[in-house]
Amino acid sequence: MAVERKFFRPPAGHFFLFGPRGTGKSTWLRAALPDAVQVDLLAPAQQRVYAARPERLRELAAAPGATDLVIDEVQRVPELLTVVHQLMEEPGGPRFVLTGSSARKLKRTGVDLLAGRAVVRSMHPFMAAELGERFDLPVALEHGLLPLVWDAENPADTLSAYAGMYVQQEVQAEGLVRDLGAFHRFLEALSFSHAAVLNASEVARECAVRRKTVEGFIEIVEDLLLAFRLPVFARRARRQVIAHPKFYFADAGVFRSLRPTGPLDRPEEARGAALEGLIAQHLRAWVDYSGSAATLSFWRTRAGSEVDFVLYGPDLFWALEVKHAAGVRPADLRALKSFAQDYPEAQVRLAHLGDERLQIDGILCLPVLQLLNGIVPGAPPP
Questions:
Q1: How many other C-beta atoms lie within 10 A of the C-beta of residue 264?
Q2: Taking Cα atoms as reference points, which of 258, 326, 274 lies closest to residue 142?
Q3: Distances from the Cα of 17 to the Cαs of 24, 61, 112, 183, in angstroms?
Q4: Residue ranges of domains in the chain, CATH in brackets
Q5: pLDDT of res. 357
Q6: Measured between alpha carbons, how far apart are the two ends of the chain, in Å?
Q7: What does the alpha-carbon distance between residue 1 and residue 144 come to, in Å, rounded to a whole number?
Q8: What is the C-alpha separation between 44 and 62, in angstroms, rounded?
């Protein structure tokens, strides 16, 4: 992975770096901090050493020239955080960089994330603007933008193994789930909730398990950073809005790898959900990499009007509807017009698969490629 393409910029002090497997955290850190002392807890030998005696970390921290100390996949030995905390309190120690692809074990063991002494940052899949001319929309919709997959010799094979790797190395290894068969059925059923309002009862019926079990499984998937939920935008609501969030996998390719296909499935449905998810992951990365105080949500009334994304912050109020079509019909603008009536302060946009940039009834309609390439941290979205 060409790490210089990443928009991520580290803070000056101690920090956690979270992100799904395959987003390039370790690769980026090795290039950005080539002289750092490294502890790789994915290596079984190192995991055993530090699980048995976490205090051995003091020896590394005291090594001459140890200005940065990277602990990769810190959730594998969360007891190390106690030692890290002590070392942070002592003057003259190294800067600690702690990576993780799961917050599950850290939360489960009740470990305090260093009481604010280390800030939390996230690394996301590639953004279109990071890839520049290499970005290919059809490929991104099929394989996603995880660097592990994008830079692979055979992206399809790498992606097909990705979920299995997660289940084996995180879910099974940590004993998070007793019935792995039920969890695999759950992941397949959950794929139909991507880019949709999440209904745990429906997912439970699909995979033939209890609703409470599904709720626990959803929490596991989110803690493993494989998925996220968008809340409903309800500020100064003039109409009744729904209460349930929308669900997205963290990468469009992960969604496509989990979504089953067959004679009864319409390909455009999966492609439409993948397109919406691709934009969702870009906007989420934009918020994190910009250090913006803006929040990302969606808007849906009980009457059925829906706007896919709303960015709201101190200096930003921006709403976007996504259409998996090459043209713009009057019906495509109805929800945005309703939103603009309730929130005239907002900038409203529609993204489509065509090539024309249009202004229709005060709504900017722009091609998806222009939108994605224009989502650059530090600058307002197009």
A1: 5
A2: 274
A3: 11, 19, 16, 27
A4: 3-122 (3.40.50.300), 128-374 (no CATH)
A5: 95
A6: 27
A7: 15
A8: 23
Positions in the chain short of pLDDT 70? 1-4, 105, 107-113, 115, 168, 173-175, 264
Tokens, residue 112: 């305090």
Q: What are phi and psi of 375, to 5 degrees?
A: -85, 95
What is the reported pLDDT for 19? Answer: 93
Question: In terms of Cα–Cα distance, which of 330, 326, 348 is closest to 339?
Answer: 348
User: If you write DSSP's letter for every residue of 74-101 in order, what string do you get?
Assistant: GGGSTTHHHHHHHHHHSTT-PEEEEEES
Instruction: In whole angstroms, give the CA distance from residue 324 to residue 245.
Output: 22
Structure tokens at 237: 């609501």
List the beta bridge partners of residue 349: 320, 364
pLDDT, tens only, 180-239: 888 888 999 999 999 999 999 999 999 889 999 999 999 989 988 999 999 999 988 778
Phi, psi of 196 (to 5 degrees): -140, 165
Nearest to 17 by CA among 121, 93, 114, 173: 121
